[in-house]
Amino acid sequence: MSTEDKLEQINMILTQISEDNSVPRNIRRVAVSAKEVLETGEGTPAVRASNALSMLDEISQDPNCTTHARIKIWNAVSILETIRD
After folding, report:
1. Each residue of 16-52: b (16+ CB within 10 Å) or e?
2. Please, is 9 exposed, middle or buried when counting C-beta atoms within 10 Å of its C-beta (0-12, 13-18, 19+)?
3. Spatial CA neighbour of 55 closest among 71, 81, 37
4. Pick the residue with more confidence: 41 or 50?
5. pLDDT, tens digit, for every residue of 43-74?
């Protein structure tokens, strides 16, 4: 799977999280921010992935995060971890 395919898959996951009204607002906001970092952030794809990864890792620890959102975040994190330069 190419880096572009991985980024597209992560984009879809983050869009699902950000549009889900059952997910707390702060988690949706971070999902949107991580998506923006991946799309328009500075640096190589690996640097952008690392920045988004740290954001998502932080919200996955949030006790208010719903179970289904946490699973989607973990899926996105596992894909982000595979992005290398």
Report:
1. ebbebeebbeebbebbebbbebbeebeeebeebbbbb
2. middle
3. 37
4. 50
5. 899 999 999 999 999 999 999 999 999 999 99
> For residues 15 and 33, is the Cβ–Cβ distance under 8 A?
no
List of domains in the chain = 3-80 (1.20.1440.50)
User: Is the pLDDT score of 41 beyond 90?
Assistant: no
Q: What's the angle, vertex CA 81, arms to CA 9 and CA 55, rounded to 5?
A: 80
Global pTM value: 0.90
Alpha helix segments (H runs only) across 1-85: 3-18, 25-40, 45-60, 67-80
